[in-house]
C-alpha cells in the first residue's frame, strides 16, 4: 500500500507542485469559518498543508504546517514565513501527542489506499490533539456523491479511482528547474478547478489515487479511530467533519 501511494500520490505531487499550488488559492468557507472561530492564542497543526493557503487565515492563532511533498512545503514556507512548516508523513508526525488545540486535514485522508490506513491517519491526527474535548480537528475528504459536478460520480460509482492531472508545458519546465513557487498573478490566471487543465499534446497526465467517501463513511472512520464527531456535513463535492478525542 505504501509503495502504491508513493507512485500515485507522493511522486505525482512532487512533480505537479507548482501547477497544483497555482490552482489552490481560495479557502473553503467552512474551513475559513472554523479557523476564524478559534480563540486567540490557540496553537494548531495543518496536516497536509499543501501550499499553506490556510496558515495565514487567522493572525491570532499559530499553525504548524506539515506535508509529505517537499516542493509544496517550500511554497508554504514562502507564503507563510511566520509559521513553522515541515516535511512529514501523516502516519509519522514528529510532534508530541496531546499538544494542539486544533488540527486541520483538508483533502488528505482520501489519498490513503486502504481502510486501515485511513483510520490510522485519523487516529494520528486525534493523537496530536489535547485530550477529552480540549482540542478539535476539521477533516475534509472527497465525496463519492458528486452527481451534479463535472466529474459525474454518484453513489453507484467506484470508490477507489485514479484521477488525472495534466501538467502544462509551462509548469513542466518549471518543475524540471525545481522552481516550486507561484505568484498571485499566476494563481489568478489559472482556473481554480482544474484536474485536467490542458489537453495539448505537450501535456502529460499524472494519475493520483483517491478513495471517494460515501455518506457516513468519514464518521464511521472517526469512530473506529477512537474519535467523537461533533458536527459533519457536505460542501461542494466534499464530506467534512469536526471531531475530538474521546480520551
From TrEMBL:
Q: Where is this region: Disordered?
A: 176-203
Q: Which organism is it from?
A: Arthrobotrys conoides
UniProt feature, compositional bias: Polar residues: 188-197
Which superkingdom is the protein from?
Eukaryota
Read off the InterPro entries from this record.
AlkB_tRNA_MeTrf/Diox, Methyltransf_11, SAM-dependent_MTases_sf
The residue stretches assigned to a coiled coil in this entry are: none
Name of the featured protein: tRNA methyltransferase, has a role in tRNA modification
**GO terms (BP aspect):** tRNA methylation; tRNA wobble uridine modification
Provide the GO MF annotations for this entry.
S-adenosylmethionine-dependent methyltransferase activity; tRNA (5-carboxymethyluridine(34)-5-O)-methyltransferase activity; tRNA binding
- Give UniProt keywords alphabetically: Methyltransferase, Transferase
Give an example GO cellular component term for this record. Answer: nucleus
Q: Which residues form the Methyltransferase type domain?
A: 45-133
Q: According to its UniProt record, what is one Pfam family this protein matches?
A: Methyltransf_11
